[in-house]
Amino acid sequence: AGLNGKSINWFQNVQSPQYNMDSMAMVHQRENVHNYFDELEGIPWINMVLDFLSFKDVLQLSGTCRYFRARSGYMIPAEWPSLQKSAFFRGEDFKGVAKKWQTLDFMNANGDIMIPNPHLVHSVIIKYRWRDQGWGNRKGTLFVVKNDGKAPNDYAAPNPKFVIAQSKDVAQHEWSTALLSFRPERLEVSDDHPKREPFACTYHLWERTGGGGGHSLYISDLEIRCLICVAHGELVEYQL
Fold first, then answer.
1. Which candidate, 25, 109, 217, 219, has a CA 20 to 30 Å from the CA of 180?
2. In the predicted model, is pLDDT for residue 167 greater than 60?
3. What is the pLDDT confidence band of residue 30, given thresholds at 50, 70 and 90?
4. Strand 203-208 vs strand 216-229: parallel, antiparallel, or unpaired?
5. How far apart are CA 62 and CA 235, in angstroms?
């Protein structure tokens, strides 16, 4: 199955390109595109292009012509048992200290990697609903932090060496849907270094409810999906 409407609509503000040309010109253009791409079969040029694109751009590319749509699909594996999908945090101090919420563990209890071909993951996308205490200043923020790094406290700058993603806006007073995405560092696999971990780094979700007193942060319906670029430019989206 391709990256169909349901899959694309899962991401906010992602739309297929619109064309302003008559139907005959459209057919002619598509035929030329297919003839050109047929000459490039066997060359991993698509993966090299996708490395420079955001996950939204990859999805848009998949909707530009039948060549890319025919090489797209998605799979939904078993439920990720360790993922905490909802949480409530209360700001217990006046300093606005950020705290680690949970580790994005892509391995199950048996130590098996839950993502087929994790070295081909293009992006990890986190979708969730959230809100704050419903009044006053808005400070609630989520971060993705790698390895042993820490998210910044209130009014502190994040360390780009460790903080690789941050919510674009703070939590609203009312429930809203938000996205976080990041590009995981791929693990080089060889006979001398067999694959034991899904990625080269460990990733964690951090939250900062906010200091000053009275702040709260509610999170629900958290989902994680991986956009995977496999051989010959196929796009496969795995939901955890």
1. 109
2. yes
3. very low
4. unpaired
5. 8
CA distances, 84 to each of 184, 195, 203 (Å): 20, 26, 14
**Which string of DSSP letters, residue by residue, matches 140-176?**
-EEEEEETT-----TTPPP-TTTEEEE-SSPPPSS-E
In the sheet where 99-103 sits, what is the strand order? Answer: 99-103, 203-208, 141-146, 163-166
Complete DSSP assignment for 183-230: -PPPPP--SSS---SSSSS-EEEEEE--SSSS-EEEEEEEEEEEEEE-
Q: What does pLDDT average to over the chain? A: 75
Q: Are 113 and 187 in contact (CB under 8 A)?
A: no
**DSSP-based three-state secondary structure for 26:** helix
> How many CB atoms sit inside 10 A of residue 165's CB?
20
d(CA 108, CA 16): 35
Average pLDDT over residues 17-23: 37
Q: Give the model confidence (pLDDT) of 95-104 as tens digits.
A: 789 999 999 8
Query: Which stretch of DSSP H or E encloses residue 16?
Result: none
143 Cβ partners below 8 Å, 6+ apart? 98, 151, 158, 163, 165, 166, 167, 205, 206, 207, 208
